[in-house]
Each structure stands twice: as C-alpha cells, then as structure tokens.
Amino acid sequence: MLLAGSLNQVWGMVNNLQIVVHTPLINVQFPANAFLLYDVMISVATFDILPTDDVYPYLFPDLPENDAFNDKFDRLQIGSRYLVMNMGTLLLVFTFYVALFIVYPCCNKLGGVLQCARNNATKIRAMLFWSHPIVFIQESYLDILLAGSVNLYFIQGGELKWDNWSLVFTNLLTVTLVSGCGILFLFVLLYLWPRFD
Amino acid sequence: MQQRFLPAYEMLNLRHGRATMLWPVVFMLRRVLFAIGVCALVENPEIQIILFMGPTMASMIVLASVKPLESASANELEIYNSFMLLAMSYCLMTFTPFVVDAQARY
User: Is B102 on the interface with A (CB under 8 A)?
Assistant: First the structure.
C-alpha cells in the first residue's frame, strides 16, 4: 500500500516533467543555458537510462543516415527520423512485453504438464492482462507520439522507404505504437467512461 | 472490470462521479495536441503555444471542478503545476511573431 501510494506520486511527477521538458520543441528561441538543464532532465522524463544510442546502430545497420526533424528535436535527443532510434530504453521495455506475449501461450500450453510453467503462466497473466501494457502506453504516451509522428510525417511526405528490414521494422513499429496510443484513448473514452459506476 | 483495467483508473478518486474519467481523457488529449502542434505547425509557433495552452487550461478546469485525483494535496499540486505551465506559456507567447515589434519581442 505504502509503495503504491509513493509510486503514484512518482508517476504524477514524471508525467508533468515530460510536458515541461518537451516545451522547448515549440518553435521559439530558447537560450542555450536552458537547454543545458533540459538535457539533464530529458533522460529522466523519457526513462532513457541505458546508452542505447551506441547499440541500436549495430542492431539496425541498414537504416540510412539522416538528420533530425529540426534543430529543436536534435537538442532534445530526438536526433533521428526513425522511431527505433528515438525510443531509446522504452523500446527495450516494449520488446520485453512482446516477448512475454509470446512466452505466455507456451507456458499456458505446458501448464497441464509442468507445475513451474503453470506458476509462471499465472504470474505473466497478472502482468499482461492488462495492467502493464496500459501503464507502459500511458507513461510513454508523449514519447511514442513525438517519435511516431516524426516517423509518420515522412511516410506521408512520400520520403519514407520500405527498402530493407530495418526500415520495415521501424515503420511497422511506428504504426503499432501510435495505433496503440489511439486505441487506449478510444478505449477510455468509449468503453470505460460509459461503463463508469 | 475495475480490477482488470486498474491502471486506467490509477490515481483517480472514483467517488467523484462519472466526470472523473475526464482526467485521463484530458491527459491523453493534451499530449496528442502537443505532438501534432510541435510536428505539423513548425511555421506557426503562436498556434503551437495555443495548442499547448488550451489543454493545460482544460486540465486545470477539470482538476478544480471534479477533483479527480485521490488526495486533496495531489489535486492542489496538479492545479499548481498546470497554473505554472499556463503562466509560462503566456510568457512564451511574447517571443512569437504574435508580437509584431521585433524590438519588443526580444
């Protein structure tokens, strides 16, 4: 109970910090000393704690070189046009949940035979349906929308290509995550709200 | 159903009626409008700021009228945060072409 209460406060703080930290994206002249402060805060607000920028170029070698959407995005560590490069640590968290969605049916199938598989299936079920995915999308909402719209903007502009697997992966991921955000919004608006009692 | 989708109701005080659900809606709408403004309206910083101001004002109104959050202090803290963001965005407005005189702008 105590932990849940303090965790709520942390989420509340991070949610506000996300908005505050991303305000320099508004196309107004910000002084360089303000950006120094934002540089420190952005990694906390976007949960970008691991040095993923050094690793992802090896995982997605086929992504063509490109510039940031504009200078503002570049300074706030949205330095690429591709979602996989901009998501950072959150992409690893997303991969973890996707892996759990694959492991869960296997554990469920094996549950009839093995006791440990049954226990794991129970644990994973409590996580996956639907508490952790909702928290993940809620907390990374702004990050997904910004990285996703930069990626989608270039699909619309006809500049984005589907030439290799890295590009296909980043485009599909963009569509999945942005539609996930849309689905959560519609779900709260059209399903949870009318059924409120 | 509330147990199953608990995180969607997280931090909410469900005793304040149906309007409580306005808070998560405003929460998400605010981010959507901010992302659209920042990406699609680069040439119009004043509209970007208005798209930032409107939902901040809306969230302040929801917080003050419905009091959707669990504790009174959390509500007051959020109202204070929104107010400060709103005050900041009013100041930002002076740095846009909305102020015609460049001398006054900077």
Answer: no
Looking at the complex, report in whole angstroms how far the Cα of residue B71 sits from the nearest Cα belonging to chain A. Answer: 10
pTM recorded for the entire structure: 0.89
Q: Give every CB contact of residue B24 below 8 A, 6+ residues apart in sequence.
A: A188, B8, B12
Residues of B in contact with A195 (CB under 8 A): 1
The per-residue pLDDT for range B16-74, each reduced to its tens digit, is 778 888 888 999 999 999 999 998 888 889 999 999 999 999 999 999 999 988 888 88
The alpha helices in chain B, defined as continuous H runs, are 6-9, 22-40, 45-66, 72-93, 102-105
Complex ipTM, two decimals? Answer: 0.87
Domain boundary assignment for chain B? 6-105
Contact A12 B77 (CB under 8 A): yes
B74 part of contact set with chain A, CB < 8 Å: yes
